[in-house]
Design goal:
This protein has 377 residues and is α/β, with parallel strands linked by helices. It is built from 18 helices and twelve strands. Helices cover 48% and strands 12% of the residues.
Amino acid sequence: MPVPADLRSWLALRAIDGLGDAGVCRLVQAFGSAEAACRAPVEALVESGGVRRSVAEAIGRGPDRESQRGIDRELNILDRRRYSVVTCLDPEYPARLRMIPDPPPLLYVSGTMDARDHHAVAIVGSRHVTAAGRAITEELSHHLAGAGFTVVSGLARGVDAAAHRGALAAHGRTVAVLGCGIDRTYPPEHASLRERIEAGGAVVSELPVGAFPHSYHFPRRNRIISGMCLGVVVTEAAVQSGSLITARLAGEQGREVFAVPGSVKADNSRGPNGLIKQGAKLVEGAMDVIEELLPQLEPSVRARIQAHAPAPSAQAVGQPLDGNEAKVYAALSAEPTHLDAVIARAALPAADVTGLLLAMELKGSVRQLPGQSYIRI
């Protein structure tokens, strides 16, 4: 959608010290528009808008000169660029996000928001993801997006990037929430990934145009990731992790929290394992997420999701692999195993093992990773 006609008034309200996101949303809802709120008398702002008198007086005075220059710069950039702006009053604004205690008054968007994004799942985790963590993240995202869920994440290195790529591989929708201005890409090496997301989904930010990716932006950004979604999945995360902040916010917002278990010895599994201890739903595959969320969906959406849900794998329903395939499968685990180790454990000729691995990869039983390593799926 285009830039709102009264965007200057929205930016003016956002620039008022002491008002905050919830205050801006409350005011525009009370007065019907940002422009009307900016023109309202002090007494009306206090009585109908519920703001302190000092804040109401600041609204009457308007932003200071430096803030006004910043607003002018931002409007000039938005006028020249392809970005759109969605306000908390607009029907395009994510409905679930509007219900959190402090929804962002404005969302800057590149790409397109869609009604399908109402049924979204966030996948988050460590920037320093393991090969196994990347594989399970891509698999979960691929299956969830293929079933019809929008996958939301933060465009960061590691798990976030894997989540976006998995959804794109399924030709599904994915939304990236930035911790910087919409005109910046962070990390910069994800520029091409961002372009792919914009082509079939959206990149969004609540921050002013030009905002740098300061560390303090990301915890605030996380409330948007969780707020847009039905639930949050944590695949890999250390104990001190921004992903756990997202999971905590999800719980506070009444969203479902899911976690992929891992080795008790692995630092990247301590976060998800801790969440499971606290009551998060244990996830071994996409169906664990889908089954938990189905009761929250409208009947028509539920039927569509069920029709496209991933079918159980042959291994999951107990169908045995061929004799030598079973030997190779037994030589693998969820952790990367080098080809030489697979050959030694399977006790089969090297040529046979490589052929079996290729056949099993085509079946979807194993996945090859960089460096001639393999994992079970």
